[in-house]
Amino acid sequence: MGVDTMWGPYTVLCIDDMPQNLAILQRILEGTYQIVSHTSPEKAVELARRHRPHAIILDIMMPGLTGFDICKRLKELPETAKIPVIFLTSRVDHEAMVQGLKLGAYHYLNKPADHAVLHTILQAAIREYETQRALHDELHHMRNTINLLHNGEFRIRDLDQAYHLSALIAKACPEPDKQVTGLREMMVNAVEHGNLGITYDEKSRLIQDGTLGKEIERRLALPENADKCVSINLEQSDDKVEILIKDDGRGFDWQPYLRFAPERVSHSHGRGIALSNLESFDIIEYRGCGNEVLLVANKLEREPRRIEDYIS
Protein backbone atom coordinates (compact mmCIF):
# COMPACT_ATOMS: atom_id res chain seq x y z
CA MET A 1 0.00 0.00 0.00
CA GLY A 2 1.38 3.42 -0.94
CA VAL A 3 1.24 6.67 0.98
CA ASP A 4 -2.28 7.84 1.71
CA THR A 5 -2.84 11.48 2.65
CA MET A 6 -5.91 13.30 4.02
CA TRP A 7 -5.96 17.03 4.79
CA GLY A 8 -6.53 18.95 8.02
CA PRO A 9 -4.78 21.58 10.16
CA TYR A 10 -2.38 19.13 11.84
CA THR A 11 -0.52 16.15 10.40
CA VAL A 12 -0.70 12.67 11.93
CA LEU A 13 1.42 9.79 10.61
CA CYS A 14 -0.20 6.36 10.97
CA ILE A 15 1.77 3.12 10.49
CA ASP A 16 0.03 -0.28 10.60
CA ASP A 17 0.68 -3.35 8.45
CA MET A 18 -3.07 -4.04 8.18
CA PRO A 19 -4.83 -1.83 5.57
CA GLN A 20 -8.18 -2.27 7.30
CA ASN A 21 -6.78 -0.76 10.50
CA LEU A 22 -5.50 2.27 8.60
CA ALA A 23 -8.90 2.63 6.93
CA ILE A 24 -10.56 2.71 10.37
CA LEU A 25 -8.11 5.38 11.57
CA GLN A 26 -8.79 7.49 8.49
CA ARG A 27 -12.54 7.32 9.06
CA ILE A 28 -12.08 8.37 12.69
CA LEU A 29 -9.67 11.22 11.99
CA GLU A 30 -10.75 12.52 8.58
CA GLY A 31 -11.78 16.15 8.49
CA THR A 32 -9.80 16.91 11.65
CA TYR A 33 -6.23 15.99 10.72
CA GLN A 34 -4.03 15.62 7.70
CA ILE A 35 -3.41 11.86 7.66
CA VAL A 36 -0.29 10.29 6.18
CA SER A 37 -0.49 6.49 6.39
CA HIS A 38 1.46 3.47 5.22
CA THR A 39 1.42 -0.29 5.77
CA SER A 40 5.21 -0.66 5.57
CA PRO A 41 7.04 -0.08 8.87
CA GLU A 42 10.25 0.42 6.88
CA LYS A 43 8.75 3.65 5.47
CA ALA A 44 7.90 5.17 8.86
CA VAL A 45 11.09 7.11 9.55
CA GLU A 46 11.33 8.35 5.96
CA LEU A 47 7.75 9.62 6.07
CA ALA A 48 8.27 11.25 9.48
CA ARG A 49 11.32 13.12 8.20
CA ARG A 50 9.53 14.19 5.02
CA HIS A 51 6.18 15.28 6.48
CA ARG A 52 7.24 16.33 10.01
CA PRO A 53 3.92 15.23 11.58
CA HIS A 54 2.58 16.65 14.81
CA ALA A 55 1.95 13.11 16.15
CA ILE A 56 2.65 9.52 15.11
CA ILE A 57 0.38 6.52 15.67
CA LEU A 58 2.17 3.15 15.57
CA ASP A 59 1.12 -0.46 15.76
CA ILE A 60 3.61 -2.55 17.77
CA MET A 61 3.46 -6.03 16.28
CA MET A 62 4.42 -5.69 12.60
CA PRO A 63 6.61 -7.81 10.32
CA GLY A 64 10.18 -6.63 9.91
CA LEU A 65 10.38 -3.54 12.11
CA THR A 66 8.19 -3.44 15.22
CA GLY A 67 6.63 -0.26 16.54
CA PHE A 68 9.33 -0.26 19.24
CA ASP A 69 12.05 -0.35 16.56
CA ILE A 70 10.46 2.59 14.77
CA CYS A 71 10.04 4.61 17.96
CA LYS A 72 13.70 4.05 18.87
CA ARG A 73 14.86 5.28 15.45
CA LEU A 74 12.58 8.32 15.59
CA LYS A 75 13.86 9.32 19.04
CA GLU A 76 17.47 9.05 17.85
CA LEU A 77 16.97 11.66 15.12
CA PRO A 78 17.00 15.35 16.19
CA GLU A 79 14.32 16.32 13.66
CA THR A 80 11.82 13.68 14.88
CA ALA A 81 12.87 13.10 18.51
CA LYS A 82 10.23 15.39 20.05
CA ILE A 83 7.25 14.19 17.97
CA PRO A 84 4.81 12.36 20.30
CA VAL A 85 4.42 8.66 19.52
CA ILE A 86 1.16 6.91 20.39
CA PHE A 87 1.03 3.13 20.31
CA LEU A 88 -2.36 1.87 19.14
CA THR A 89 -2.11 -1.86 19.62
CA SER A 90 -3.67 -5.03 20.94
CA ARG A 91 -0.56 -5.55 23.10
CA VAL A 92 -0.96 -3.46 26.24
CA ASP A 93 0.82 -5.01 29.22
CA HIS A 94 3.30 -3.94 31.87
CA GLU A 95 6.34 -5.13 29.93
CA ALA A 96 5.24 -3.30 26.79
CA MET A 97 4.54 -0.14 28.78
CA VAL A 98 8.02 -0.20 30.35
CA GLN A 99 9.65 -0.74 26.97
CA GLY A 100 7.64 2.05 25.37
CA LEU A 101 8.38 4.52 28.17
CA LYS A 102 12.07 3.71 27.89
CA LEU A 103 11.86 4.68 24.23
CA GLY A 104 9.93 7.89 24.93
CA ALA A 105 6.40 6.90 23.85
CA TYR A 106 3.68 9.42 24.69
CA HIS A 107 0.73 7.03 25.18
CA TYR A 108 -0.72 3.57 24.71
CA LEU A 109 -4.22 2.84 23.45
CA ASN A 110 -6.04 -0.44 22.98
CA LYS A 111 -7.43 -1.68 19.69
CA PRO A 112 -10.10 -1.16 18.59
CA ALA A 113 -9.72 2.57 19.14
CA ASP A 114 -12.43 4.41 21.03
CA HIS A 115 -13.17 7.43 18.84
CA ALA A 116 -13.54 9.97 21.64
CA VAL A 117 -10.49 8.72 23.56
CA LEU A 118 -8.30 8.72 20.45
CA HIS A 119 -9.29 12.30 19.62
CA THR A 120 -8.68 13.39 23.22
CA ILE A 121 -5.22 11.77 23.36
CA LEU A 122 -4.23 13.19 19.97
CA GLN A 123 -5.34 16.68 20.97
CA ALA A 124 -3.37 16.43 24.22
CA ALA A 125 -0.28 15.10 22.42
CA ILE A 126 -0.33 17.82 19.77
CA ARG A 127 -1.01 20.55 22.31
CA GLU A 128 1.97 19.31 24.35
CA TYR A 129 4.16 19.12 21.24
CA GLU A 130 3.27 22.65 20.14
CA THR A 131 3.78 24.00 23.66
CA GLN A 132 7.18 22.32 23.95
CA ARG A 133 8.28 23.69 20.59
CA ALA A 134 7.23 27.21 21.59
CA LEU A 135 8.96 26.87 24.98
CA HIS A 136 12.22 25.66 23.45
CA ASP A 137 12.11 28.42 20.84
CA GLU A 138 11.67 30.99 23.60
CA LEU A 139 14.36 29.33 25.68
CA HIS A 140 16.96 29.56 22.93
CA HIS A 141 16.17 33.20 22.18
CA MET A 142 16.60 34.30 25.77
CA ARG A 143 19.78 35.88 27.09
CA ASN A 144 21.76 34.22 29.87
CA THR A 145 21.49 37.20 32.25
CA ILE A 146 19.42 35.06 34.66
CA ASN A 147 22.72 33.41 35.62
CA LEU A 148 23.73 36.70 37.26
CA LEU A 149 20.88 36.24 39.77
CA HIS A 150 21.98 34.16 42.78
CA ASN A 151 18.59 34.22 44.46
CA GLY A 152 15.25 35.80 43.76
CA GLU A 153 11.47 35.46 44.09
CA PHE A 154 8.90 35.50 41.31
CA ARG A 155 5.09 35.44 41.46
CA ILE A 156 2.64 34.27 38.82
CA ARG A 157 -1.14 33.90 38.54
CA ASP A 158 -1.89 32.29 35.18
CA LEU A 159 -0.60 29.75 32.67
CA ASP A 160 0.85 32.30 30.27
CA GLN A 161 3.06 33.66 33.04
CA ALA A 162 4.00 30.08 33.97
CA TYR A 163 5.15 29.31 30.40
CA HIS A 164 7.34 32.41 30.14
CA LEU A 165 8.81 32.14 33.62
CA SER A 166 9.67 28.45 33.19
CA ALA A 167 11.75 29.34 30.13
CA LEU A 168 13.49 32.16 32.00
CA ILE A 169 14.38 30.09 35.08
CA ALA A 170 15.46 27.12 32.97
CA LYS A 171 18.27 29.29 31.60
CA ALA A 172 19.82 29.18 35.08
CA CYS A 173 19.71 25.36 35.14
CA PRO A 174 22.48 22.99 34.01
CA GLU A 175 20.35 21.38 31.25
CA PRO A 176 17.75 24.00 30.25
CA ASP A 177 16.11 21.83 27.55
CA LYS A 178 15.29 19.19 30.18
CA GLN A 179 14.50 21.44 33.12
CA VAL A 180 12.15 23.74 31.18
CA THR A 181 9.66 20.88 30.74
CA GLY A 182 9.64 20.03 34.43
CA LEU A 183 9.40 23.66 35.49
CA ARG A 184 6.41 24.24 33.25
CA GLU A 185 4.65 21.11 34.53
CA MET A 186 5.15 22.11 38.16
CA MET A 187 4.06 25.72 37.67
CA VAL A 188 0.99 24.71 35.66
CA ASN A 189 0.11 22.17 38.35
CA ALA A 190 0.40 24.90 41.02
CA VAL A 191 -1.98 27.18 39.11
CA GLU A 192 -4.53 24.62 37.89
CA HIS A 193 -4.72 22.15 40.75
CA GLY A 194 -3.37 24.31 43.54
CA ASN A 195 -4.84 27.80 43.31
CA LEU A 196 -7.83 27.02 41.08
CA GLY A 197 -8.74 23.69 42.68
CA ILE A 198 -9.22 21.77 39.42
CA THR A 199 -9.21 18.08 40.38
CA TYR A 200 -7.71 15.26 38.32
CA ASP A 201 -11.13 13.98 37.23
CA GLU A 202 -12.35 17.48 36.44
CA LYS A 203 -9.35 18.12 34.23
CA SER A 204 -9.92 14.84 32.39
CA ARG A 205 -13.52 15.84 31.64
CA LEU A 206 -12.61 19.41 30.69
CA ILE A 207 -9.93 18.21 28.27
CA GLN A 208 -12.35 15.75 26.70
CA ASP A 209 -14.98 18.49 26.35
CA GLY A 210 -12.44 20.99 25.02
CA THR A 211 -13.34 23.50 27.74
CA LEU A 212 -10.26 23.46 30.00
CA GLY A 213 -9.06 26.90 28.88
CA LYS A 214 -12.46 28.51 29.45
CA GLU A 215 -12.78 26.93 32.89
CA ILE A 216 -9.33 28.20 33.89
CA GLU A 217 -10.29 31.72 32.79
CA ARG A 218 -13.58 31.47 34.70
CA ARG A 219 -11.91 30.37 37.92
CA LEU A 220 -9.16 32.98 37.63
CA ALA A 221 -11.87 35.65 37.54
CA LEU A 222 -13.64 34.40 40.71
CA PRO A 223 -13.36 36.77 43.69
CA GLU A 224 -12.03 34.01 45.97
CA ASN A 225 -9.07 33.51 43.61
CA ALA A 226 -8.27 37.17 43.00
CA ASP A 227 -5.43 37.35 45.53
CA LYS A 228 -4.01 33.86 44.97
CA CYS A 229 -0.60 33.53 43.38
CA VAL A 230 2.19 31.01 42.94
CA SER A 231 5.53 32.05 44.40
CA ILE A 232 8.75 30.71 42.89
CA ASN A 233 12.03 31.13 44.76
CA LEU A 234 15.26 30.57 42.86
CA GLU A 235 18.61 29.96 44.54
CA GLN A 236 21.74 28.92 42.70
CA SER A 237 25.23 28.04 43.83
CA ASP A 238 28.31 26.59 42.21
CA ASP A 239 27.02 23.02 42.42
CA LYS A 240 23.21 23.17 42.16
CA VAL A 241 20.08 25.14 41.38
CA GLU A 242 17.13 25.03 43.79
CA ILE A 243 13.62 26.16 42.88
CA LEU A 244 10.90 26.29 45.52
CA ILE A 245 7.35 26.52 44.16
CA LYS A 246 4.46 27.27 46.53
CA ASP A 247 0.78 27.82 45.74
CA ASP A 248 -2.11 29.08 47.87
CA GLY A 249 -4.18 25.91 47.51
CA ARG A 250 -5.09 23.14 49.93
CA GLY A 251 -2.49 20.71 48.64
CA PHE A 252 -3.02 17.21 47.25
CA ASP A 253 -1.90 13.60 47.62
CA TRP A 254 1.26 13.89 45.52
CA GLN A 255 2.84 10.49 46.17
CA PRO A 256 0.94 8.48 43.46
CA TYR A 257 2.04 10.96 40.79
CA LEU A 258 5.80 10.65 41.33
CA ARG A 259 5.68 7.38 39.36
CA PHE A 260 4.09 6.22 36.14
CA ALA A 261 0.96 4.21 36.94
CA PRO A 262 -0.40 1.59 34.49
CA GLU A 263 -3.99 2.68 35.22
CA ARG A 264 -3.18 6.21 34.01
CA VAL A 265 -1.18 5.28 30.93
CA SER A 266 -4.05 6.01 28.51
CA HIS A 267 -5.20 9.20 30.26
CA SER A 268 -4.85 12.56 28.53
CA HIS A 269 -2.79 13.99 31.43
CA GLY A 270 -1.31 13.01 34.78
CA ARG A 271 2.28 12.15 33.81
CA GLY A 272 3.96 15.53 34.26
CA ILE A 273 5.25 15.04 37.80
CA ALA A 274 6.59 11.55 37.02
CA LEU A 275 8.32 12.84 33.88
CA SER A 276 9.84 15.70 35.84
CA ASN A 277 11.03 13.25 38.47
CA LEU A 278 12.59 11.00 35.83
CA GLU A 279 14.03 13.47 33.36
CA SER A 280 14.20 17.02 34.71
CA PHE A 281 15.40 17.13 38.31
CA ASP A 282 17.70 15.25 40.68
CA ILE A 283 15.38 15.88 43.62
CA ILE A 284 11.64 16.57 43.79
CA GLU A 285 10.59 17.06 47.41
CA TYR A 286 6.98 17.86 48.28
CA ARG A 287 6.42 19.50 51.63
CA GLY A 288 3.53 19.79 54.04
CA CYS A 289 0.14 19.17 52.46
CA GLY A 290 1.57 19.18 48.93
CA ASN A 291 1.20 22.86 48.06
CA GLU A 292 4.96 23.37 48.25
CA VAL A 293 7.63 21.55 46.22
CA LEU A 294 11.41 21.87 46.08
CA LEU A 295 13.13 21.12 42.77
CA VAL A 296 16.89 20.53 42.70
CA ALA A 297 19.07 20.32 39.59
CA ASN A 298 22.69 19.43 40.28
CA LYS A 299 25.32 21.09 38.14
CA LEU A 300 27.62 18.12 38.61
CA GLU A 301 27.32 15.03 36.41
CA ARG A 302 23.95 13.39 36.88
CA GLU A 303 23.60 9.67 37.55
CA PRO A 304 21.57 7.84 34.85
CA ARG A 305 17.97 6.98 35.76
CA ARG A 306 16.20 3.65 35.13
CA ILE A 307 12.61 3.93 33.92
CA GLU A 308 11.74 0.74 35.85
CA ASP A 309 12.35 2.61 39.11
CA TYR A 310 9.63 5.14 38.23
CA ILE A 311 6.74 2.80 37.44
CA SER A 312 4.25 1.81 40.12
UniProtKB/TrEMBL annotation:
Protein name, as recorded: Putative Response regulator receiver protein
Residues recorded with modification 4-aspartylphosphate: 59
Keywords of the record: Phosphoprotein
Domain Response regulatory: 11-126
InterPro entries per the UniProt record, alphabetical: Bact_response_regulator (IPR050595), CheY-like_superfamily (IPR011006), HATPase_C_sf (IPR036890), Sig_transdc_resp-reg_receiver (IPR001789)
GO BP: phosphorelay signal transduction system
Pfam families with a match to the protein in the record: Response_reg (PF00072)
Gene3D superfamilies xref list: 3.40.50.2300, Histidine kinase-like ATPase, C-terminal domain (3.30.565.10)
Record has Phosphoprotein as a keyword: yes
Phosphoprotein found in the keyword field: yes
